[in-house]
Amino acid sequence: MGRKALIVWGGWLGHQPEQVAGIYREVLEGEGFEVEVSNTLESFADKEKLMELDLIVPNWTMGEIEKHLVFNIMAAVQAGTGIAGTHGGMCDAFRNNVDWQFMTGGNWVAHPGNDGVRYTVNIRHSSSSLLEGIEDFEVVSEQYYLHFDPAVEVLATTRFPNPAVKGPHSTNSPVDMPVVWTKRWGLGRVFYCSLGHQANIIEMPPVKEIIRRGFVWAAEGKKLAQGNTEFSGVYTGMGDSR
Q1: What angle, 0 to 180 degrees and rounded to 10, lies between the N-to-C axes of helices 205-225 and 17-30?
Q2: What is the DSSP track for 162-174?
Q3: What is the rounded distance in angstroms from the CA atom of residue 160 to the CA atom of residue 148?
Q4: H helices within 113-225, ranges in order?
Q5: Spans of all domains in the chain
Q6: Which CATH number fits domain 4-106+178-225: 3.50.50.60, 3.30.70.100, 3.40.50.880, 3.40.50.460?
Q7: Could you tell me how far CA 72 lies from the centroid of its own chain?
Q8: CA distance 101 to 98
Q9: Contacts with 229 (C-beta within 8 Å, 6 or more apart), sequence order
Q10: What is each CA distance from 160 to 84, 123, 135, 137, 176, in whole angstroms?
């Protein structure tokens, strides 16, 4: 039986979620996936269906989501289903849901200079070979400043502050901000790339290749998780104890 992926798009239309979802579909079908594309969060209501997927690709910016839908996704990923996404479609999907941020590894907080900033994406040497052979490259887009989980494995970075963009953050010492990372959630693999403000950025050859590799890598975790019951319990999140 072939690998199955679910792409769910929506939220803020400025990120061209439908067009980007179409590119994702093309990439995944090129890798032999059976792909379902949806524009409703209710696609996350059937937990058993999610558990059978190899990959979930959220592409939904600045949305509101019911807690039980997030817990369904988290349970599936915990059991081995991969989750992968880009830009605000994954790590600015649901700002008010800290459980989502815990699983995905971070959340957008700023893009100094807004769209049209020229910056370099530096491929980082690490224990992962996922981006092997991809060279540093420039992009003109939003440069994402993120709050991120120190547990992520960073595969690519960009430098802040950008000399071309002045702001109150500029008085801090230079930092390398993650652009691409991976992490684990239970038995599941998590992949994120902060590039992808609109479809033209996703179509850039190095970006599209990074995404292709990340999607395939995240989905491969499903096969490796089969038969493993180590994380069979359900994560119940923060609840209302804040």
Answers
A1: 60
A2: -TT--SGGGGSPP
A3: 15
A4: 199-202, 205-225
A5: 4-106+178-225
A6: 3.40.50.880
A7: 17
A8: 5
A9: none
A10: 25, 15, 20, 16, 6
> pLDDT tier at 241 (50, 70, 90 boundaries)?
very low
- pLDDT of 236 reads 61
Per-residue model confidence (pLDDT) at position 126: 83
Higher confidence at residue 148 or residue 229? 148
Q: How far apart are CA 58 and CA 107, in angstroms?
A: 14
What gap in Å lies between CA 69 and CA 162, rounded to an integer? 38
The amino acid occupying position 231 is F
The span from the CA of 28 to the CA of 57, in Å, is 10
Which two structure tokens, joined as six digits, stand for 196?
A: 């992808």
pLDDT tens digit sequence for 57-78: 999 999 999 999 999 999 999 9
Buried b (16+ CB within 10 A) or exposed e, 10-31: bbeeebbbeebbbbbbebbeee
Structure tokens at 26: 């093309």
Indicate the pLDDT class of residue 242, thresholds 50, 70 and 90.
Answer: very low
Cβ neighbours around 182 below 10 Å, total: 20
- pTM of the entire structure? 0.95
The Cα 70–Cα 35 span in angstroms is 21
